[in-house]
Amino acid sequence: MEKNAPAIDLYDEVNRIAIQVTSDSSSKKINHTIEEFNKNKAYNRYDRLVVLVLTQKKKYTAAFDTDGNFVFDKTKDIWDVEDLIKDIRKLDTEQIKEISNYLSKELCDKYYAVKATQAGEIDTIIDLIEYISKHRKVKKGRKTEVDPEYKIYKRFREFADKLITEYTTLFAIYGEALEVVNDTLGIDEAQDIIIMFYLQDISIQYLDEAGNNPVLALNKLVAYFEDKLSVNGKKYDRAAIKFYLVNEMIKCRVFPNERSEYDDGEQ
Fold first, then answer.
1. Helix (H), strand (E) at residue 49
2. Fewer Cβ within 10 Å of end Cβ, the chain: N or C?
3. 3-state SS assignment for residue 21
4. Domain spans of the chain?
């Protein structure tokens, strides 16, 4: 019988115990586990089946039929996390320390394995800014006007609700992360101007390709940067990329208001 076989997630071959780990505390799930245990004749290898519920077990009134192949005591063989903690507290100090060390190693190894391949929101925004800085093309600045209300409510009025909703939603999640990034990087004025020129040029290009649809252009721009960042195998937080770009849009550095168009629009 292999680990992760039907009805078995963990096993102790010495003490002949099989354990099913589940977040489903229903009687139906437990009966299904017993049925699978019987179907695979696991009772030939294990004398006891334990169901570990990751949520909270119930006060079960249902009968759990094992077809007489093994004994299943619902008062002793259905555990939850609270039961585990109670049992661990009964152990001596050295045993508790051994459990603690094992869990710390397992959790840390998994954490760093994920961290190596998946960037959080702060890492995502930092890597995005660094990518822009390294791939910048210095061009002559555009004559633009910083007026987010004009941009959203006049220039892109048919998309205004969508843009405002996205900004407010993303700001609630990523606003603090952006503050941390700004404090961490300490971008100087010259670098900030170069980043602005880059974002203006590439965003206008995508906006033209999207037929002046800022929502479509923004999504394509997010996909572009996500693709460029992912060359090192990391998975980046797509929503964090979008927030950075939407925030730059509010500052009129993404989809900037061209001065000539702005003057015409204000007349």
1. strand 48-53
2. C
3. strand
4. 10-90, 119-266
